[in-house]
Amino acid sequence: MLLESIARLLGNKPWLAVMLPFWLRGGRAAMKRKIAEQITIDASLLPYNTPFLEWIESERNAGRPLLLATASDRLLADEIARHLDIFDQVIASDGQHNLKGVGKLEALKEAYGTEFAYAGNSRADLPIWRECREAIVVNAKPDVLAAARAGGNVTRVFEREPIKPASIISVLHLQDWLKNLLIFAVPLGLQVPVQPWLGAAAFLSFSFCGSGAAMLGDLINLERDRRDRVGSSGAIASGAFPMEWAFVASAALIAIGAAFALPLPPRFAICLAGFVVLTLVYSRRTMVTPLVLRLAAGWFAFVQH
After folding, report:
1. For the chain, first and last CA: distance in Å?
2. Cβ contacts of 166 within 8 Å, gap of 6 or more
3. Contact assessment for residue 296 and residue 185, using Cβ atoms and an 8 Å cutoff
4. pTM
């Protein structure tokens, strides 16, 4: 939810992104509260682990009380709890205390001792799994699952869904790489010779930067994608591709693309920067502009090189 919140902030109030390091200086709990105060979430659109939800509902129907214990800020946790309407109690980060790892364990032990079952998914949950009565592992990475099982009290596992090749192709927007061949349209039309290494650099620069910017755009538009394409939303919006990977990959792809642009003229870099910005704010109304920028980039890279 922290990454979801940051993505929502970047989409709705991007000018506040510069405040993130300053908010973090007050601690993670303070930063989470600051972000939560600036955004709204529609809990009904979030991707949920359906088999796990069905199981905990069956446990509740069998008479077990359910507690939502999360490191997310209380403002967000309450929204999710209201939507799901299955929890008897919520404990969460409150702007001063970050309820994660050992902090969460202390809160749970104060309320229940060690007589509780705990469902989690991250390495930060290992101290809790070691001391609770039943450990339930949900959507965890293989190394986290192995560490949890080493504790000997894992009673149920909800396996992590593997990332499908189709999701990788979708999140990288590889179909757009073909459009970058337009970079060669102007020099070929004017019969200007193109040095192979410069041509490859220009093509790869636009392709990597385009994939990174499109991925970042998907992060920014998570809620829109979920609302407009319910049941067939993008790989990130649907949860098929991990959000934490998408943040890292988008930055890496843009950096790689920028590196390929270094041997090319400065005006090519201007076209590339404009292309990245327009990809971030992409809509059908701006569809023609990225095509024009590809043609202009070819002109500046080869005709005037």
Report:
1. 47
2. 235
3. no
4. 0.83
Per run of 10 residues, the mean pLDDT along the chain (length 305 residues) is 92 91 94 95 92 95 94 96 95 93 92 91 94 94 93 91 87 85 72 74 89 90 77 75 92 95 85 82 52 61 58
Task: Please give the domain boundaries of the chain with CATH numbers for all domains.
Answer: 2-40 (no CATH), 44-158 (3.40.50.1000), 165-303 (1.10.357)
Amino acid at 268: F
The encoded tokens of residue 187 equal: 């020099």
**Which amino acid does the sequence have at 122?**
S
Two tokens, residue 83: 């939507």
The total number of residues shown for the chain amounts to 305
Q: Which residues pair with 160 in a beta bridge?
A: none
Q: Return the C-alpha torsion angle 120, 17, 279, 184, nearest 10.
A: -110
Q: Are 198 and 264 in contact (CB under 8 A)?
A: yes
